[in-house]
Records
---
Amino acid sequence: MSTPVASLDALRSELVALGPLVVALSGGADSAFLAKVAHDTLGAERVLVATAISPSLAPEEEADCRSLASEWGLRWLGVVTDEMDDPRYVMNDADRCARCKTALMTALAPLAAAERATVVLGVNVDDLGDHRPGQSAAAERGARFPLVDAGFTKGDVRHWSRALGLRTWDKPAAACLSSRIPYGTPVTLGALGSIGRAEASLRGLGFGQLRVRHHGTVARLEVDPDALAAVVTRREEVVAAVTAAGYLYVTLDLEGFRSGSLNRSLDRAGAVDRDEEAP
């Protein structure tokens, strides 16, 4: 692992300057690292860690957030968000991520007011490379990104997480389940459920970094290129796992996993939005 550029002391200084915090914990490596460092720096009485609970959060991610809170002694709670009540979110246009972050900030605002705290998200410097409407929506509503302010890249997060002994240091990148649905295809509870069950089953087979892209009755699987051969070799198990989740057909994307692959349709239309990985 490469030598980090960012300083852990610089991050701690940023957190102290922000004062009491509400940390949004998605379960990803970035938000988990931020929650742990904030907790260790400011103490549980000044750090509330909250996880947005909705159908777009994979059940195993919610369970992992609860586990992390227990393991690390975090003051944690789950907060129900209502993005599925927003017709603009359900219609799944290029601003879907903005609708999601708006719902998140709306849910966290009363907590932040009660705690007299600042809402912080686990966005890192590498996340700034593309236009991401969710980040803009959160920032407009007062969220801060201390990892960015302290100059942390994804590599820095993983390095320092490993140095601190956090089991999340090598956790694969994740994103909300809605990001598996092509733009213009409505987000439904049925689709989210099928995606979540299929991905959980595939992880149970040992496949780590993956996406099940939802195309109606067709599931398009993206896995690390090194795992393509294994999928073919174990195709009967893979097909059984995915069809049990409700799909009729299973395809394997030969390009392998890449974040935001569904954005090609936006690129062709002249847009630049990207899926927002769970930090």
---
Amino acid sequence: MSPDPETTRIVRSWLDEGVTQLPDRVLDTVLDQVPATPQRRATWPAWRSPFMNNFARVGLAAAAVVVVLFLGSRLFGSPSPSVGGPGVEPTATAEPSVQPSVEPSPTPVGLPEGSHALWDEGVAMTVDIPGPGWYGVPAGGILVKNDTADAPDGAGMIVFTEDLYVYADPCRWSTTTPDAPATTVDEVVSALSAQASRDASAPVDVTLDGYEGKSITLHVPDDAVFSECDQDTFGSWGVESESTPGRYSQDPGQIDELWILDVDGELVVIDTAYYEGTPAEVVDEMRAIVESTTFE
């Protein structure tokens, strides 16, 4: 089968000129060549994971490079001796000067007791881990007790340092996303307090490392059916860079204690989650971690 001359021209131009963005027609071909695997929620951390998002982008870019190189070799690679005819020497295939490579994503590991860099983007945060069994990645913004944040007895915490688009209805988040984000402590508290089905507590004043804010507790109904929600997801809020919830719940019955702070004009939200079945000492440890927070 003869190659499409226009596709040949586009691919050749891309390879020759070294541009960094694929044309749409070539990108469509690349996506057709990349195997599709049904996605499911990861068991860890199954929350927002910045390092996994970055890894996915790099992986797709590398896959695109591999497929384009393959297409290029098929479309205008060197002819074989049998095709070239008598007296035509086969042309050596040039090795690419840079081999595509993908660094493995950071793997959550058991963390030792003591000081731990919790987050380093925008507002750097350090916490003290008071006991064993906590897992995370340095500065990854997530800590999980005993490697699970799932019901019936899991526990974990996650950090956000962006303005939040708080959904009016966590189950119908795709149609109740506000036009503008909440950018202050009071705006976030007000939006969460009004959120459907969350049974929010009255906010209380808190201080962490000298910075003032408010704490509020939210609940996911015990009888919530996530499969009846948008994309099977019970979402608390979104962030500007994502089209799906930046924070969603693990299971029905989840309890979220949030510390919402203004750190030198920057909005910081620390979300700790657990269940009725989570041991009290684990909840106490998690609260102690939050209260140990220092900002840099």
